[in-house]
Amino acid sequence: MTLMSTKVLPSSPAVPAWPVVAELLKPITWFPPMWAFCCGVIASGVSPAGRWLTIVTGVLLAGPLVCASSQAVNDWFDRHVDAINEPNRPIPSGRMPGSWGLYIAIIWTGLSLAVAATLGTWGFAAGALGLLLAWAYSAPPLRLKLNGWWGNAACGLCYEGLAWVTGAAVMAGGAMPDARSLALAGLYSAGAHGIMTLNDFKAVEGDRVMGVRSLPVQLGIQRAAWVACIVMMVPQLVVLLLLISWGTTGQAIAVAALMAAQALLMARFVKDPIKQALFYSGFGVPLFVAGMMVSAFALRSLVSAA
């Protein structure tokens, strides 16, 4: 089978234009880790007074740096798959000339590490681990994305858990975050595994051809949809039980309401996963991340009252 070439066309520029670089770095994907970082900041219970520079630096690290690095890495090592699934992306289309996709991934990774180093030991460790997972997800020899179980776990941890932990750590002056905060970060990371599966329904054809064993490829469309829903809901149920056990009744009711709304949307999603995956991403995922923020405020109230 002949794949689309990613070589620079004769009329292509030697250096990519900034709009093309921005497209490669995908600003629309930065929101989840930036949101999770803010959840960690709030969950710490520490006043932001006098710490705004640190908070802004952390938000930039989570989104425009670490997440953007992961997008560049993924697009470079996925360029042959994208030539089938999404040939208009910057690299397979030739708008990102030569090896500039790889160069940008390396530059952004180095810049991310430099910024992470300003956030203390825990902040740097979380940032470095996030970058390591980003490369392990897309690049050989590990290329975790070849298996939907491992790849989606790496993404969920990087997008939600590590960003949350980084936010909590920098507010704690570089110390280990509260155990309850770590528990919430871990649970929402697990739930994000299901969110990552939503992205796989649009690429089933190309994944099959290129040997990417996403969950829809491994399990079939219908089973993968049910697994994604279960994986999203079970961690939230554990969060709900924790909030009840902590005595944060109001926040527990709010999380329960958000879960009920998600369940209604999931009923529509599982009827036609390929057509409805984008719909659920647009309306169901915001309910998931809203629950993250509610949980963060619940923990903040506990920490502040202690």
Brief write-up:
This protein is mainly alpha-helical and 306 residues long. It is 73% helix and 0% strand. It has 14 helices and no strands.
How would you characterize the overall build of this protein?
- The structure is a single chain.
- This protein has 306 residues and is mainly α.
- It has one domain.
- It is built from 14 helices and no strands.
- The chain starts with 17 loop residues before the first helix and ends with a helix.
- The N terminus is likely disordered.
Q: Report the helical percentage.
A: over 70%
Topology order in helix (H) and strand (E) letters: HHHHHHHHHHHHHH
User: How many helix segments?
Assistant: 14
What is the radius of gyration?
Answer: 20 Å
Taken together, the total number of domains comes to 1
Strand portion: under 5%
Can you tell me the residue ranges where pLDDT is under 50 for at least 5 consecutive residues?
A: 1-10
SSE class: mainly alpha
Shape: globular
- Mean of all residue-level pLDDT scores: 91
Distance between the termini: 64 Å
Number of strands: 0
Summarize the main sheet: none
Features:
globular, 0% strand, mainly alpha, 14 helices
Layout of helices and strands:
Elements: H1 18-25, H2 31-43, H3 52-77, H4 79-85, H5 100-116, H6 120-138, H7 148-171, H8 179-198, H9 204-210, H10 215-219, H11 221-245, H12 249-269, H13 273-283, H14 285-305
